Amino acid sequence: MSKVLVVYHSGYGHTKVVAEHVAKGAQAELVAISAEGDITDADWAALDAADAIIFGTPTYMGNVSWQFKKFADATSKIWFTRGWQDKVFGGFTNSASPSGDKQVTLITLQTLASQHGGIWVSLGMPPSNTLEATAEDPNNLGGSVGLLARSPANAGVDGVQKGDLITAEHYGKRVADIAARLKA
């Protein structure tokens, strides 16, 4: 069994719901980035001890939230010592639009993992892209680099699309399974 952490920022609670489903699939612990873009010293220690880290952030204005970016920039001290070298990484994002430039956010997360010398895990699931597909279907947004989720702008936290939550649990499990295989 591998130790997986999901470190995420959630501005309005929607991304937190997605993070909880990713964590459920991975049997992972959650680390919430505060509204000020900070995590605790204990959180940093837990991330250092993890076998896998899954990043999560809403997509705001075509990229990660500033709070997530502050966290990412703070990892430069770890980068300098290669402290996360060869860890397994994954990532997810959530926004109101079906696209909303989510891909840019995922590439930012993938680049952060790569800067650390990490091993990135793709979604590993084909898209639900038939005429009959709905928001209830897994991977209905057609992600491949990581998990894409959608929460309509006028929906509460219970408005995260059902198919995206199914996909979140699948992705969390996939990251944890790959981390366990590499650890063995």
From TrEMBL:
UniProt cross-references to SUPFAM superfamilies, sorted A to Z: Flavoproteins
UniProt cofactor(s): FMN
Q: Which UniProt keywords apply?
A: Flavoprotein, FMN
Flavodoxin-like domain: residues covered: 4-146
| Organism domain of life | Bacteria
Q: What is this protein called?
A: Flavodoxin/nitric oxide synthase
Instruction: Please tell me the species this chain comes from.
Output: Gluconobacter frateurii NRIC 0228
